[in-house]
Amino acid sequence: MRELVEWLGKDKGIHPVLVAGIAQFQLVHIHPFVDGNGRTSRLLSTLCLYRSGYDFKRLFTLSEFYDRDRSAFYRAIQSAREQGMDLTGWLEYFVDGLATQMSEVRQRGERVIRRDVLVREHGLNERQAVVVEALLVGGPLGMEEVEALVPGVTRRTLQRDLHGLVEAGLAVAEGAARATRYSLSDKGLR
Q: What is the active site of this protein (predicted)?
C-alpha cells in the first residue's frame, strides 16, 4: 500500500485515465481490507480522475458499467493476474467502461435538450414532455405504456395529449384502436 500511495503522489507522465485504472486494479489486487476493497478501489479511481480535472458531477459511476456484466469485470481483473500483471486487458476494459459511461451521459443530455427544445417550441404540457422523452429513449409506445409513464391521468386526457403531438407533427400514430403505437416523427427527431 505504501508503494501505491507513493506512486500516486508522483508525477508519472502517464495519462490520468490510465493512472485511475492502474490505481483501481492495484488496490483490488493488494486487497488491504477484510471488506470493501472493490468499493474503495472504485472510489480511488474516481478520486484520481477528479484530481486530474475529470469532474463528472456525479452524473455516472463506473460501478454502473461494471454492474451490467460482473463476470466481464472479474475476467478483466483476472486476465491481468494471469498475464504476469500485464494490465493491458484490464486498462482496455476500464477505458471502455469510462468511454461508455461518458457516451451515455452525453446521449441523455442530448435527449433532455431535445425534449426541452420541443417543449418550448411547441408549448407542450408536462405530460407530453414525459411522452416525448420516453419516445426519444425507447421508441414506439402504446397507450398502456403511456398510462404507466403518467399515472393518475385519465385515458381521455392522454389521448388528447397524444393527438396534440400528432397534430404538431412531432409524433406519428400507427395502427388502429387499442393497437395504436406512437413514435416520433422526423420533425420530432430533428
A: 31
